[in-house]
Write a structure and sequence with these properties.
There is one protein chain. This protein is an alpha/beta fold. Among the domains are: 188 residues, Spore Coat Polysaccharide Biosynthesis Protein SpsA, Chain A; 74 residues, no CATH class. It contains 18 helices and nine strands. α3 runs parallel beside α4, α7 packs across α10 and α7 packs parallel to α18. The longest helix has 23 residues. The radius of gyration is 22 Å and the shape is globular. The two termini are 18 Å apart. The N terminus is likely disordered.
Length: 422
């Protein structure tokens, strides 16, 4: 990584601080007072003080009548009491937790909490202000806010920053094994998407994204969902403009088993720890190659349709005999046709394609990982000094998973940095 110098990160110069955007921090909280205290400590340590924090403590209303959720309710009240005691910086508390204020009906969860927070910020923010999305289990250095402010000041055209992340290991083998497996999955996916030049080669983490208010308004805000809201939101932003992938400051989401959402790190770890990684596989190289081949065919697809796996997938999913014909009819030239294709075959459709194809074959994560390294990083595969003949995500020493994760992290950071070069 290439860190800022101390001089470039300083805000002692008031004129420099005045030239940087004001920051609004959006933080949903549910049943995590201890973790929240760590995140609040990180916020308080920031060298850049031009910010305000909006926090939604939330839970379903019916939890108050459920004895099995009594401790969760108490923890949310503890979080609210903790927030009320803060005097070091301004905190706006959005109470969706105390009795009578909880979520009612089907609309609940982190997606709705993020939406409510961001809409409250939207009421008071200026277009060039920046919203930093965090989670209550995330830590970061005292320069994180300043690094985000610099990123948007230097790149005023970008619609979002997908900040680099890193899960720290803990003193528990089961947790570390599940976390490392999941992170290897995510970083392998990023590197494959980057390799084929996909517009959607980013990792959507609600704890590691920022965006300017003008971009939030331009796409109509965040669509509330029970989970996965960060993925859909960043996809909308990417269709609108450029997403920045590089920042020299990391965020550190907690590695923990959590079922607060339906998919993401916590649920993946729970499912994976039981031996089921079918939702988070290391996909075979040739699936990504099929996508790349379609990308390369786009200039020809503007004139005629070819019978490929992706053509058949798009025909089935959109119920169209020729999925490209409407794109040809509605776009005046090839450039617009290609852009329209990427909006149609977006990050969600790519994932659906990969999952559909993967379900039809016997696919082994370990073999797919080895094949990826053999093809693209053969020298590094040797340097890792892992017994590849017996390598297993579930049985090999955690130290071997740590080595692989470390290598994938370094390669991903290289590609993120390359993305900002002229």
């Amino acid at each position: 990584m290439i860190p800022y110098s101390e001089n470039s990160m300083s805000t002692d110069n008031l004129s420099e601080a005045d030239s940087l955007p004001y920051l609004y921090v959006a933080l949903p909280v549910m049943n995590e007072p201890e973790l929240l205290a760590q995140t609040l400590s990180c916020i308080d340590s920031q060298t850049y003080r031009h910010f305000k924090v909006f926090i939604c403590v939330n839970q379903p209303e019916h939890w108050w009548e459920d004895p099995s959720k009594a401790e969760f309710c108490k923890n949310n009240l503890r979080s609210i009491d903790l927030l009320k005691s803060i005097v070091e910086f301004e905190v706006i508390i959005l109470d969706r937790a105390t009795k009578g204020n909880g979520w009612k009906g089907k609309q609940h969860g982190v997606g709705h909490a993020r939406r409510i927070i961001m809409e409250e910020i939207n009421k008071v923010a200026s277009p060039d202000d920046v919203i930093i999305s965090l989670d209550a289990d995330t830590t970061f250095s005292d320069r994180y806010f300043l690094s985000v402010a610099h990123s948007f000041s230097k790149n005023q055209h970008i619609v979002a920053l997908c900040n680099p992340y890193f899960h720290k290991e803990v003193n528990d083998e089961k947790t570390n094994r599940a976390m490392l497996h999941y992170e290897i999955y995510m970083r392998h996916y990023f590197l494959q998407m980057d390799r084929i030049g996909s517009p959607y080669s980013f990792t959507a983490l609600g704890s590691a994204m920022s965006f300017p208010v003008w971009a939030y308004r331009a796409i109509g805000g965040m669509t509330p969902k029970m989970s996965g809201e960060d993925f859909y939101f960043l996809q909308k932003l990417r269709k609108f403009g450029t997403v920045l992938l590089w920042n020299d400051e990391l965020v550190y989401p907690a590695a923990r088993f959590s079922d607060r959402v339906f998919f993401g790190t916590g649920p993946a770890m729970i499912k994976g720890a039981s031996g089921d990684w079918t939702s988070y596989p290391v996909y075979p190289n040739f699936f990504f190659n099929e996508i790349l081949e379609t990308y390369l065919l786009l200039p020809l697809l503007y004139f005629q349709t070819f019978n490929t796996n992706i053509t058949r997938f798009l025909s089935a999913i959109f119920d169209l005999e020729d999925p490209y014909q409407c794109l040809r009819e509605n776009n005046k030239d090839m450039d617009h046709f290609i852009r329209a294709f990427h909006e149609k075959f977006d990050g969600l459709r790519i994932l659906q394609y990969l999952k559909t194809e993967n379900s039809r074959i016997f696919s082994n994560d370990e073999e797919n990982l080895k094949s990826f390294l053999d093809l693209y990083y053969p020298e590094m595969k040797k340097k890792l000094k892992i017994n590849w003949n017996t390598f297993s995500f579930s049985k090999s020493p955690v130290a071997e998973l740590t080595k692989i994760r470390g290598f994938f992290f370094e390669k991903e950071m290289e590609q993120r940095f390359i993305s900002i070069l002229p």
